[in-house]
Design brief:
The protein is globular, with a radius of gyration of 22 Å. The protein has eleven helices and 15 strands. The strands form five sheets. It has a five-stranded parallel beta sheet with strand order 11-7-6-5-15. It is α/β, with parallel strands linked by helices.
């Protein structure tokens, strides 16, 4: 059995609240669903004897199938990202040391991802010269050593980036609410703006700067973060009121998809057709079902059931917010990831050699090789 609700429904959901084991759907035109002349709760319920048959019917008739696949190298070879291990403490030398450390332990190929703290300011989309004054040579060195180089990207422009902030304001490129407020708050800034991807000119302006990064210093692709609508002020004001507010997410992910088959995104709304990896939200470095190791299975299942088949299970061992992962957690995470679409490292298994009584490096390499097969 599955229930599919139309994209235009101003949907509110109550599950296991008033009555355990039951779900209630309601259509109501209150914030963030505004400026609608009519409200309709439009849905279908399909019942089949076989769960697989029901799922395939939902995919084929309602959710849609991807038009292609992510690059096979993203499946076969690990992604190595700076984020969990280094957080914002990165520069040219650290990135090169990270890459060389991986190579020295016998891992060839792969995708090296430069995460947060590379920008001059959030929204500049240019490398900061204090930490990345030699980025062209850094990228060249990585590519000479058979790395694909990707970069962390977000859809915000902070007021500290005065040139881009002022330009976006002058041209109406930032998402606004019904009162004309264009401010946005996200995890790195309280004084920011979210690019309005429902406007093609704004999307092109944002994307053009990424294309420059591909030309120089030669970035191969991007890790696209955020994209949800909850960073801007509510209720939102978009021209397409009946697909608002989630049309912002749809248009953002569609804009990201133009950058090819090496990308990853972490949000989506009716974007199952895109041939891209969709990343799980940041995982905690613990064993739990809430957001730790055990939640890999439930999150993967939920995303698959909603039509997102190519799921990136975030970083092995979690993000290290608060508690850092133990060696045993790293190994168990690797084993769980082995039969998922992709493997992504930041914490390096050999960093735990002295803290465990087993061959953590050998076990890790065994399962990476099994995944590649």
């Amino acid at each position: 059995t599955f229930i599919f609700l139309d994209d235009t429904v101003p949907l509110w959901v109550n599950q296991n609240s008033k009555l355990q084991g039951q779900v209630c759907f309601k259509a109501e035109a209150v914030s963030p669903y505004v400026n609608r002349e009519h409200v309709e709760l439009s849905y279908v319920i399909k019942v089949y004897d076989d769960a697989k048959e029901a799922h395939l019917k939902a995919i084929n008739d309602y959710l849609g199938k991807p038009t292609g696949y992510p690059n096979e190298k993203m499946v076969a070879e690990p992604i190595w990202t700076t984020w969990a291990k280094y957080k914002q403490g990165i520069n040219d030398n650290i990135v090169l040391q990270f890459a060389n450390d991986i190579r020295s332990h016998g891992y060839q190929g792969g995708q090296l991802e430069i995460d947060d703290a590379w920008e001059t300011c959030y929204g500049a989309q240019t490398f900061r010269t204090d930490n990345f004054g030699d980025i062209s040579n850094t990228v060249k060195s990585l590519k000479d050593n058979n790395w694909r180089v990707t970069l962390w990207i977000h859809p915000f422009v902070d007021d500290t980036c005065q040139d881009n902030s002022n330009y976006g304001k002058e041209h109406g490129y930032f998402a606004q609410n019904t009162s004309g407020d264009i401010s946005a708050v996200w995890w790195n800034s309280d004084n920011s703006h979210q690019v309005d991807f429902t406007k093609s000119e704004a999307a092109d302006w944002w994307a053009a700067r990424l294309k420059k990064l591909q030309q120089s210093p030669g970035i191969d692709s991007f890790k696209f973060d955020a994209g949800e609508i909850n960073y801007m002020k509510m209720p939102p004001k978009f021209d397409d009121v009946y697909h608002s507010p989630n049309i912002l997410t749809t248009k953002y992910v569609d804009t990201c998809a133009q950058f090819g088959d090496l990308i990853e995104v972490r949000s989506g709304f009716r974007t199952q057709r895109n041939p891209s990896f969709v990343r799980m939200i940041d995982k905690s470095s613990d064993w739990g079902i809430s957001n730790g190791l055990a939640s890999l299975i439930t999150t993967l299942l939920q995303m698959n059931m909603n039509g997102y088949g190519m799921v990136l299970p975030d970083m092995i061992g979690g993000n290290g917010y608060g508690n850092k992962p133990t060696g045993e957690l790293i190994v168990r995470w690797i084993q769980a990831n082995t039969f998922m679409p992709s493997m992504q490292f930041s914490y390096l298994p050999w960093d735990y050699t002295s803290s465990v009584s087993f061959d953590i490096e050998g076990i890790s390499k065994k399962y990476v090789q099994l995944h590649e097969q």
